[in-house]
Amino acid sequence: MDVIWHEVAKCRAFYQGPSERSNLMARIAVALLVLVGLLATPASGGDLPVVAKITVSSSPAASTLGLRLVEGVLTFRGRKYLLTLGGTTAATSAVGTVSNLSRARDIEGIYRFVDGELHNEAGVRLRFDPPLPLRGGELQVDIASRIYPKVSTGQGNSVE
C-alpha cells in the first residue's frame, strides 16, 4: 500500500499546475492508481459469499450403530428443504452458512474438512456455528424433501 501512496504523491507533484486540465488529469491518475492497487491486493481469506443457511435441530432423527442422523432445514432462494445429516456423534443445535451452492441438489454428498470448512465434491462449502461434532471428520448430507413451498403430490417431490 505504501507503493501506491508513493505513486499518488508523484502524480500529484507532476500534475500540479495552474490549468484546470492538469487538475483533472491528476484526479484521474490518482483514481487509476488506487483502482490498480485495490485490484492487485489479494482478497482476504478467499471467502465466497453466503448463499444459503442450514438450521440443525437439537434432536436426532435416527441413530444407527453409534452414528446419528440429525435433521436440518436448508433455506435457499426462498425455498426450504428438509435435510438429514449423518455422521454427528451427538445431538446438537447449530446454524450453518452455505457457500458456492448453485442448485439445491448440490448440497448432497459427503463433506470433509478443508481449511476449517466442510467441502463436498460439488464444491459446496459449509461452516457451522457451533461446529458439529463429527465422527471421522465427515458429514453426509441428503435432501429428504422440499418443505416450502409445499409440493403437491401430483407433481412429485422433485428438487432442482
Describe the overall structure.
- By secondary structure, this protein is an alpha+beta fold.
- The protein folds into 2 domains: 2-40; 50-155.
- The chain has helices at residues 2-15, 20-40, and strands at residues 50-64, 67-76, 79-88, 94-99, 109-114, 117-119, 125-129, 138-148.
- An 8-stranded antiparallel beta barrel has the order 1-2-3-8-5-6-7-4.
- Helix 1 (2-15) packs antiparallel against helix 2 (20-40).
What are the defining features of this structure?
22% helix, single chain, 160 residues, elongated, 8 strands, 8-stranded antiparallel barrel, 41% strand, alpha+beta
SSE ordering: HHEEEEEEEE
Query: What percentage of amino acids are in beta strands?
Result: 35-45%
Number of helices: 2
Q: How much helix, percentage-wise, in residues?
A: 10-25%
How many β strands by DSSP? 8
General form: elongated
- pLDDT < 50 stretches: 38-45
CA-based gyration radius:
25 Å
- Separation of the first and last Cα atoms: 45 Å
How many domains? The number is: 2
Average of the residue pLDDT scores: 77
How does the helix and strand content classify structurally?
Answer: alpha+beta
Strand order in the largest sheet: 1-2-3-8-5-6-7-4
Largest sheet: 8 strands, antiparallel, barrel
